[in-house]
Amino acid sequence: MYSKQALRELGINEPLHEPHRQALERDGFYIVEGVLTAEQCDQMAAEFDRLHDQEQDRGGHEVHIEPTAKRVSNIFNKSSVFDACLEITTLLQASHELLGEFKLHGANLREPLPGGGHQDLHADVPKKFADDWWVSNAVVAFDDITLDNGPMRAVPGSHHWQPINVAAVNVFDWIEPSLTEEEKARVPEDLSKPYPGEKLVTCKKGSVVIINSCLWHSGTLNTSGNRRRVLHLTYTRRDLPQQLVQRKFLTDELYNRMSPAQRYLMDIEPLREGESPMLESAGRGSNDWWAVESTES
Predict the structure, then answer these.
(1) Is 206 among the domain residues?
(2) What is the CA angle 244-245-248, rounded to 5?
(3) What pTM was computed for the model?
(4) What domain range is 132 assigned to?
């Protein structure tokens, strides 16, 4: 199987909607409303709460524990409630558009706590040349994302600029090049402050924000304390390892409920004779973001 075939088997026969393709190219992100119903959002939000109540301070331990936010990772092995998110058409189309041959990268539930959630401006991943895209990211909103409950701030078009403030654990085998004077001038002195032209990305529950992970962005402070439960669902190129290696955690129950196309996109289908699973990077060892034992997202 290959990615286009998997999409066809999932009933996706068309490329990314042209206005969305243009926005992704121009701005580095776009929003689609009404992807999930209110009932689906309520079910997924309640399941997030249930899983986090079980894990408490260990929530997200397979990937990353965050002191100022609730997190749960490895969600598809723990529950079938989120399965519909694996068939979000616009996300799969955008991932194919950006990445070519692609597979699931990670799936992390997250809710910033009251008074928490603010981050320095950053890009999630680097790039080695202008259109070297590594990861697509979707923010699936189970609650309304408002101006005061910790929305993402994004700098439209910044995915075309040099990577900024990429965490060391995220760089894989990338070597940061010397910056031109123009590139140096773009970098703010204080990454925590608002950036000229940034946009606070708000949306209704049930919406999905599709993001090129090279975009300059960050979380902001949840000043109201209102709930903002989301799923960060990411895909990566098939030549790169997953954030959470699905084969390491795979249960029979998950495998049996996935279709062949879903197994392919999750990278859990049976290996061919002589094949070895891609478990960790050949880059910077066990502290690498892509490595099996990584604790960072």
Answers:
(1) yes
(2) 120
(3) 0.90
(4) 3-271
pLDDT in tens, 85-119: 999 999 999 999 999 999 999 999 999 999 988 88
- Residue 155 placed within a domain: yes
Number of domains observed in the structure of the chain: 1
Query: How many whole angstroms separate alpha carbon 266 and alpha carbon 268?
Result: 6
- Tokens representing 296 are 């960072």
Contacts of 289 (CB under 8 A, 6+ apart): 167, 169, 170, 171, 172, 243, 296, 297
Alpha-carbon distance values, 73 to 27, 78, 125 (Å): 29, 9, 20
Q: 8-27: per-residue pLDDT in tens? A: 999 999 999 999 999 999 99
CATH code, domain carrying 176: 2.60.120.620
Report how far apart, in Å, the C-alpha atoms of 178 and of each of 126, 160, 175, 213 are: 14, 16, 10, 21
CA distance 44 to 277: 31
Residue 31 lies in a domain: yes
Distance CA 289, CA 167 (A): 9
CA 103 – CA 42 distance, rounded (Å):
27
Q: Is residue 96 domain-resident?
A: yes
Residue 57 has a CB neighbour count (10 Å cut-off) of: 10
